[in-house]
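Co-fold these.
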Amino acid sequence: MAPEDASVHRVLGLSDEEYETIHGLLGRHPNHLELAMYSVMWSEHCSYKSSKIHLKRLPTEAPWVLVGPGENAGVIDVGDGIAVAIRIESHNHPSAIEPYQGAATGVGGILRDIFTMGARPIAVMDPLRFGPLDDPRSRWIAEGVISGVSGYGNSVGVPTVGGEIVFDETYRGNPLVNVLAMGVLPVERLVLGRASGVGNLAVLLGASTGRDGIGGVSVLASAGFDEASQNADKRPSVQVGDPFEEKRLLEACLELLDEGLVTGIQDLGGAGITCATSETASRGGAGMDVDVSAIHSREEGMEPFELMTSESQERMLAIVEPESLDRVLQISSRWEISASVIGRVTGDGQLRILDGFDGEVLAELPASTLHDDAPEYERPLSPPENLIERRSLDASSGPVDCAADLLVLLRDPAWVYSQYDHQLFLNTVVGPGSDGALLRLRDPRTGHETGRALGMSTDGNHRWCHVDPRQGTAMVVAEAVMNIACVGAEPMAVVNCLNFGNPEHPEVMWQLSEAVDGMSEACRAFNAPVVGGNVSLYNETNAVDIAPTPVVGVIGMHPKLSNPPPGMTVSPDLTLVLVGQQPNEDVSMAGSRWAWEIGGCKDGTLPEFDLLQTVRTAAYVTEIVQRNQVEAVHDVGEGGLAVALAEMAVHSGVGMHISGFDGHRALFNESGGRVIVALNRTDLESFLKETSNRGVPAQTIGNTGGPSLVLGSTINLSIDDLTRAARDELPQALGQGTVSG
Amino acid sequence: MSRRVGVIRFPGTNCEFDTVDAINELGGEAKVVWHGDSDLGDVDAIVIPGGFAHGDYLRCGAIARFSPIMDAVSTFARNGGPVLGICNGFQVLTEAGLLPGALQKNAGLKFLCRMEQIQFASTANVVGLGASVGDLLNIPINHFEGNYVCAKETLKQLEEENRIVFRYTDNPNGSIGDIAGISNKRGNVVGMMPHPERATSMLLGSNDGSSLLQSLLSTERAPSTNENVASTHDERI
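Predicted complex below.
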């Protein structure tokens, strides 16, 4: 093998030190193919080299956690012999360049992570963040992404049951497209991505390998955007999705797993065959011989490095015993998917790339070095220099017209989620457009109802996290937990998608570190361990980092579901009670939508946040929802109390009279840990007594009825006006047909 | 009584198990029938469920009509067997010539998944047992290509022959005559865009779909005659 010339590794995204490490590990200079394999596996995207040191601080254990971070998906035991697999991932950079395909392949990739564990994916959620609606390019990206999620997710047959949609200047050049997927499996079917048993075969299933997505993880996912690269030259690194191929692949893999034909299985995502073969081999403590000539490819003349690093979609690698091969090929052929034996498990720990099993050795390296020896950086971190000054700002100043401001802040996401199948599998008791989703839990072996249900929510808030990444992230976790509390579910696990800027900027590493600490505190308080996650760095445009955006997905259990939870719909003549954190005249508006979008101040100090009180509040809300003790319940989140009340009023077509809340500070501040509850007047006294016994603050704020939303002397708006403002914004901005699938 | 129901599964179909569950819940015995088989087995009724048969590539239902099982489905239908096509199944039935017309992209050029209200316009068919014309039902839709279209003469014929089964009360997709579902002349073949299997429990927001599936289970097979064979063949006008 020829010694490497000095510059190639840099083109591939490896630093000089990293090259020297490889040199040391091999005891010789790597050849081109080996270098290409290290470059994709040691990329930020695959190796988590900048974040690993911080992620170790997250709580990851609980008795019900079957599989924690590090595998394809986290898995928890939900009782009755049923396990739930869950995972969240980003597809930010591909979506910035090719919105439809970027989002579509994001959905495809996360689904493979779920069925790799042996689970049938039954739900997707899509937290989406775009640049401002008045920016044409951002609108083009938003519409393309929404179409991509719809086009791929609906066709592959997994319902999209929730998500978020956020527009902000910070995402103008760099949208965030995160996708969460969840699946169920019988506990005994849990499979891990391991290659074991010398002589076992590695079978590549699914789509042929093409030149799409070569080095996507290193070229795209691990570097920021600048003016010149925004458009054309990165496009060939975006893969093209085929949901029909994925659907057949999914069904075939589940059949293989049902029949017990595979000893290990692994999806091909970032870093393609290199990742799948080396990961399965090193996890299983084995080695593997890989024959590149056996890979079914899309075109003639592909180079070995292209075959080994291609990110062509809809492919899986199954490890099977030789005697099972015939049956595996039979099932593949029934589902019309290609299958080729491309590898053999060996006992020496080496990953050998060969041209024919008995042919020339093209590359040879210890499989585990691609993972275990990936660099780990303790990058410098420091808070922003002007932090003290930033935190001293008053975020409540600016022109105030509360009624007009409320109309601006209202947004009904129905235009988005009505494009997603959110009902398939007949589980969706509460779907998108509510606080959290609630899905019936059925036994994956029999299809029988368990009488229980899974609550799910995804949440992020770049405004809170910009102001204070630590407290902001804790509040984000609390928000997600409160959302599922509103559908009666108790939290069991969290997954995270850490979207940050350039890790080479000390301020970004400080944000990441603070966010991890805030998340740890909150997850410990809610007893919800982190079972998996994804880190997306280099979210920057022209050297400007995005506001820190950790996104969390939380999953929880409703132990006894006999009726749909109350939801946010009210009838007239109910009493409204604010439960949780109570108002305080000097409350800060920092990090609120009002401050960012209307007042124009992005800094300040976040409102005080009482984590333990929020834990008590969430537990209490969960109970009253489970007992169907209240008529309606709605979380107070972005936009504050006024937006939450308006959402309830619009949803119900019923007005409200609220007193004691005057002025923008009281109406739009975003203190955490609050819920609005509606109940019959006759139940009020006992309710307030109970909350007081439980240490949960509560106060009557008004009642329902009439044709208008009346908030003290500040706001008086008709339900019609509110409805129009909420309903029309997205279709008017995005529904103009600028994109086709 | 039609108790045993064959639910056709093409590659890309995704509502087959929901349909099986809904039918079994109502006391039927549903089984999945693979598209590559040529024999339906012992069944009293057929459902072609929703999804994306063959990826909906080329055109929805255009490839599915060539799947081996479709010959058996056609024969079953010609012999008066009850056949219900739901969503993608409706598209397949029109492509296969078992129902007239076609389903094109929604007028808004967007996929739509949401609850819709539909109204019985005719009960002289396999889903109308026990129902009355004018009955209102809440049943979700879930489609991109649900905009029913047909020739003027066909529409006239459908109306005269009492073959418009459902109309939307607030047309979501631009369908001609607000049509949500139609039948063949004898009423044994019905195609509808809304998903009755998704409206079978109040936990899911509606159980108005149960009565339609119950009707399918209770329908006697229509008598087989030569004229009927001829009329089915004539559907593709």
